């Protein structure tokens, strides 16, 4: 019979012992490779596909991909095209909007070479003054007022015309200083520099909301054309279905490239909007090339090239690399790696379930010891994390933490941590005395005359008046063409010997042993199962004096059996 030396357990089939190796925290066994490894967590990370939120391991990436597509937990956060899992459905939605999944098919009509994924992105490009044609938000607002004569997308009540339809430019002076910063008198926001306050005043923040959505039950107003176009593209209120709105937007955006920029337009634009300006360093630049050189050399600018985000300090950039799911950066090695989780597993102390890495083993040990997620699964003495609380209890009850003070009464030299382990030793026929399960059952039937641990209704006597154990043996007729099949439960086995081991096990035997605990009455086919149940004290039957006396007497006198 297959035997596990570290756990001191026998198994009826190799399938059972492999299942034990895969599930037990004492063994580092890979069920896919069918071999023992040094570290199962690192092995699964390197050679297989792991779903860390579900704590499931798959043989390859196709299994993980199929799991995330079908799982209710992941399907609304998983992009099957990129095979990426996001933290929320909103992040997945935002991921599908950029140019990764949408082509840049909208070109700038002024021939600056810019391409965009949507009309709203094009409009925002023009409003920000990023186009070399010189067009900006003020010019776009003036053109829309001239072309939208039917007020399809504009609100005439918000467009108050003076000498012209242009908005007045508000400039801040040094009198805006309040002792701590430059304060906006409209919203009372404080800015560090006068230039940044003027940029704030020139933004659409305090402008009239002249654009309106004409959708039924909508009526949302916007300060910029790009905001309205983005709202229409989202189709939240269904206004994009109206023909007049489609014609107005197509006509306006289609003819925008034919506009002639008025020669007076540069006079209407703030210098801070034309010239690149660094708000952090309070510096103006005559070209974007000069601004880029400044950002590249300045110690106050730390840019993430992948995300195009500027951080004021190196620590901020490093924290971004560590926390962002787009980067694989090790904060301990200070370098980018191909796979951060595999790197943590190989070179650092890593908790895969919490996805946290620690600088040393002591940090991981304290994490397991203090974490509410692990404390009831972690053995502090052995520094070992078990899969469940039951596995931890089984580990604490093993010979690692309990002395082997139960000696075999047949003087075979074996000792065990519990009585159930002793009975299992005898039932499996591992004792050199020749004791086996049939002998144990016969002994219990003869001595348990008050039926304290046995069920008389399950003990059918033979011709001699004593219940007999019948061992089933499979013949050549058990072969079904592809495997050896059990005639009782229809389980299949690879070899004839494995099927006979299955038939000789207590799997199909009568459950003659019973627990007399209140509201329990659980039955077992073997004495070792009942003793293990009593030792676990799940139903409190061990408190009954009659049960204690019966077990002590029966196990104490077992060494006097004459085979």
From TrEMBL:
Identify the Gene3D superfamilies for this entry: Classic Zinc Finger
Higher taxonomy: Eukaryota, Fungi, Dikarya, Basidiomycota, Agaricomycotina
Q: Which GO terms describe its molecular function?
A: DNA-binding transcription factor activity, RNA polymerase II-specific; RNA polymerase II transcription regulatory region sequence-specific DNA binding; zinc ion binding
User: What SMART domains does the record point to?
Assistant: ZnF_C2H2
**Which Pfam families does the protein's record reference?**
zf-met (PF12874)
**Keywords of this entry:** Metal-binding, Repeat, Zinc, Zinc-finger
**Boundaries of each C2H2-type domain copy?**
77-106, 349-379
Q: Which organism is it from?
A: Psilocybe cyanescens
Q: Which InterPro entries match?
A: Znf_C2H2_sf, Znf_C2H2_type
Does the keyword Zinc-finger belong to this entry?
Answer: yes
What do the Gene Ontology cellular component annotations say?
Answer: nucleus
The protein's name in its UniProt record:
C2H2-type domain-containing protein
């Amino acid at each position: 019979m297959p035997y596990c030396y570290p756990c001191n357990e026998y198994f009826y089939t190799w399938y059972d012992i492999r299942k034990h190796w895969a599930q037990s925290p004492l063994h580092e066994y890979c069920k896919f490779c069918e071999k023992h490894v040094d570290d199962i967590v690192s092995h699964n990370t390197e050679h297989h596909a792991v779903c860390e939120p579900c704590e499931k391991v798959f043989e390859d990436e196709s299994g993980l991909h199929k799991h995330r597509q079908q799982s209710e937990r992941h399907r609304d956060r998983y992009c099957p095209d990129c095979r990426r899992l996001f933290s929320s459905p909103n992040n997945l939605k935002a991921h599908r909007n950029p140019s990764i999944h949408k082509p840049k098919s909208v070109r700038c009509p002024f021939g600056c070479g810019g391409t965009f994924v949507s009309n709203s992105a094009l409009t925002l490009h023009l409003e920000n003054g990023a186009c070399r044609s010189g067009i900006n938000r003020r010019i776009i607002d003036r053109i829309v007022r001239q072309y939208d004569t039917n007020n399809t997308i504009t609100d005439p009540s918000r467009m108050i015309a003076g000498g012209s339809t242009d908005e007045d430019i508000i400039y801040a002076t040094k009198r805006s200083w309040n002792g701590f910063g430059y304060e906006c008198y409209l919203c009372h926001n404080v800015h560090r520099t006068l230039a940044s306050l003027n940029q704030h005043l020139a933004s659409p923040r305090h402008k009239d909301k002249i654009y309106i959505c004409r959708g039924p039950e909508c009526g949302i107003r916007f300060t910029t054309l790009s905001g309205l176009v983005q709202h229409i593209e989202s189709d939240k209120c269904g206004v994009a279905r109206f023909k007049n709105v489609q014609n107005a937007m197509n006509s306006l955006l289609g003819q925008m490239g034919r506009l002639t920029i008025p020669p007076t337009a540069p006079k209407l634009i703030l210098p801070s909007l034309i010239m690149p300006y660094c708000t952090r360093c309070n510096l103006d630049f005559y070209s974007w090339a000069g601004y880029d050189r400044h950002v590249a050399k300045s110690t106050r600018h730390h840019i993430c090239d992948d995300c195009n985000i500027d951080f004021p300090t190196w620590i901020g950039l490093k924290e971004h690399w560590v926390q962002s799911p787009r980067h694989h950066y090790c904060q301990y090695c200070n370098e980018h790696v191909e796979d951060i989780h595999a790197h943590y597993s190989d070179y650092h102390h890593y908790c895969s379930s919490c996805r946290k890495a620690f600088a040393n083993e002591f940090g991981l040990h304290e994490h397991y010891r203090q974490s509410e997620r692990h404390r009831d699964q972690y053995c502090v003495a052995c520094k070992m994390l078990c899969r469940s609380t039951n596995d931890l209890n089984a580990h604490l009850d093993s010979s690692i933490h309990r002395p082997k003070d139960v000696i075999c009464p047949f003087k075979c030299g074996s000792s065990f941590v519990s009585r159930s382990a002793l009975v299992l030793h005898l039932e499996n026929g591992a004792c050199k005395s020749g004791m086996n399960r049939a002998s144990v059952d016969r002994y219990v039937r003869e001595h348990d005359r008050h039926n304290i641990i046995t069920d008389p209704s399950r003990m059918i006597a033979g011709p001699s008046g004593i219940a007999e154990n019948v061992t089933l043996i499979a013949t050549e007729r058990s072969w079904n063409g592809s495997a050896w099949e059990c005639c009782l439960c229809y389980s299949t086995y690879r070899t004839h010997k494995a099927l006979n081991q299955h038939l000789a096990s207590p799997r199909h035997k009568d459950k003659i042993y019973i627990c007399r605990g209140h509201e329990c009455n659980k039955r077992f086919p073997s004495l070792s199962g009942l003793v293990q149940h009593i030792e676990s004290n799940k139903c409190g039957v061990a408190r009954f004096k009659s049960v204690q006396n019966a077990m002590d007497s029966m196990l104490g006198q077992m060494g006097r059996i004459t085979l």
